[in-house]
Amino acid sequence: MTKTQLKVKSIRCGTVIDHIKANRGLNILSMLNLPDSQTSIMMAINVESSLMGKKDIIKIEGRELSQEEVDKLVLLAPQATVNIIRDYVIAKKSKLHLSDEVHEVVHCTNPSCITNSNEPITDKFYVESKEPVILKCFYCERSMNYDDIESQF
């Protein structure tokens, strides 16, 4: 195999999620409710990366991610790149960006938090850390780490 050969074949149309922290690709597939009976998926786990050492890559044939899925993805893989592929060409390349606040994507893990009552209040978090991702509830100030976030998907 020469240096220019791909280990995983190209997709005609769909989404490629690259630069996923090693061993987190399966969590992302779970969050996306994949695999399913209609979607072809190719995944590479722990592949060499000059930038990251090791990384995971997910290729999803025939499906582009919704904004809601991207909002969740940025919490699980804030350093990832999302490529939209059309006719074997990258039509759009986006580096994910975790903003300073997260609204209505995850729920507070504190059972006593006002957001877990019957009050009409939406979940809101401050981002305490982007790597690793740590969120702090706006209302009760409970911190949530990757495991807390991932368990909600």
Order of helices and strands: EHEEHEEEEEEH
| Global mean pLDDT | 92
Principal-axis shape equals: elongated
- Please indicate the percent range of residues in DSSP E strands (runs of 2 or more): 35-45%
The helicity comes to: 10-25%
Overall structural class, as computed from helix and strand content, comes to mainly beta
Question: First CA to last CA: what distance?
Answer: 38 Å
Number of helices: 3
User: Strands of the largest sheet, in order across it?
Assistant: 2-3-1-4-5
Largest sheet data: 5 strands, antiparallel
Radius of gyration: 17 Å
Low-confidence stretches: none
Counting DSSP E segments of at least 2 residues, the number of strands comes to 9
Can you summarize this structure?
This protein has helices spanning 25-31, 67-76, 146-150; strands at 14-21, 41-49, 53-61, 81-86, 89-95, 101-103, 124-130, 133-137, 143-144.
